[in-house]
Write a structure and sequence with these properties.
The protein has 7 helices and no strands. It has one domain. It is mainly α and about 190 residues long. About 85% of the residues lie in helices and about 0% in strands.
Length: about 190
């Protein structure tokens, strides 16, 4: 579906560019005809005056028209390159996005995370700060820190007195609520990058 949109956009780009170039060529031909001293004398005087005024207008605005056309073509090339760059980054971004989603799901379901899972998460999301932005990098740091907190709380639960368990369980429940909220908002957080 995404590829069809890209192809459609490229066709629209080439169609718009072709129309602009065609108009510019017609204007150039008319201007060249006027500059070459086309003879309008067989035409009635009002039509001749119209064509003389039209050619004067074309001669005076030709540079502006060329500048506008060139600027538009440059803008379309920039836009196409921007979309191509976004498309080229898609695979890498999506792979990291899926790693984040799986890590959150693991934390919600298991309420714990082992060392191997955390190391795999760090490996799968390395470089995210550069591929996404600094806010996403900070989010990943917070996510990892909270995963470590869950692991620490689980370790404390094994050896803490009975009266402290309720407090520790409440902390773990609060972290689980945070993970659930982040999982629900994950698409919104990353949608601008896709």
């Amino acid at each position: 579906m995404e590829c069809n949109k890209d192809r459609l956009g490229q066709r629209q780009l080439s169609n718009r560019t072709a129309v602009i170039i065609l108009v510019a060529v017609i204007v150039l031909i008319l201007a060249a005809w006027g500059l070459a001293g086309a003879d309008f004398s067989p035409l009635p005087s009002q039509i001749r005056a119209f064509f003389d005024n039209l050619l004067q207008f074309i001669k005076s605005s030709l540079v502006i028209l060329i500048a506008i056309t060139t600027t538009y073509i440059a803008y379309e090339q920039w836009r196409t390159n921007h979309l191509r760059l976004k498309h080229d980054r898609f695979e890498s971004r999506f792979r990291r996005f899926e790693a984040i989603r799986k890590f959150l799901q693991h934390l919600i379901i298991n309420e714990q995370v082992d060392e191997d899972t955390r190391i795999q998460f760090l490996a799968d999301t390395s470089g995210s700060r550069f591929i996404f932005n600094a806010k996403v990098g900070q989010f990943l740091d917070d996510l990892h820190d909270k995963a470590v907190d869950v692991d620490f709380i689980n370790t404390e639960l094994k050896s803490c007195p009975e009266k402290e368990k309720a407090s520790k369980l409440r902390q773990r429940t609060d972290l689980k609520k945070w993970f659930i909220a982040e999982l629900r908002g994950l698409d919104g957080r990353f949608s601008r990058f896709f």
